[in-house]
Amino acid sequence: GIDRDARTYVGPHPVVAHPPCGAWGRYAHRYLGNDADCGPRAVEQVRAYGGVLEHPRDSRLWSVCRLPRPGEPPDAFGGFSVEVYQSDFGHAADKRTWLYIVGAVDIPAMPPRLASVPAAYRKPSGRLSTALERMSKTERHLTPPAFAAWLLDLARQVPR
Questions:
Q1: Nearest to residue 102, comparing CAs of 154, 46, 151?
Q2: Is the dihedral of CA 110, 112, 113, 117 positive or negative?
Q3: Residue 44's CB: how many other CB atoms inside 10 A?
Q4: How do residues 52-97 score in pLDDT, each as one tens digit?
Q5: Cβ-defined contacts of 74-82 (< 8 Å, 24+)
Q6: pTM of the model
Q7: Before 124, cis peptide (omega within 30)?
């Protein structure tokens, strides 16, 4: 809840972490917030207690915290990364997402890969518009309930 701060979590349970991505994404140059420390702290928590961290594809958090990119071998913590499309879980846009996973014994079954959501269309002005751009900020940031449930199932695979 709003009264709890994930930065103060000290275990012992596995985590599902989705730190604010403003400081780490492609628009970080426009970021005005003060929660950039949440990203590295979330990585520390996933490494310490197991679980999963979710962030947009190509998040700079991967290079800053030396997380393996999808397809690379696991790191010294046994953590590895995979890419998912949130559209497969019901999001209206592809919303490619990277997951950093530590300690999961079995990865829950993923939904079948759906055909890609149309990436862009040309406006009458000639400018391309993506599916994400056509959504409100709230719509873009919502996590599909099926994806949230899948992430929780994933964290439950971490032995305690």
A1: 46
A2: negative
A3: 14
A4: 999 999 999 999 999 999 999 999 999 999 999 998 998 777 788 9
A5: 77/47, 77/102, 78/102, 78/103, 79/46, 79/47, 82/107
A6: 0.84
A7: no
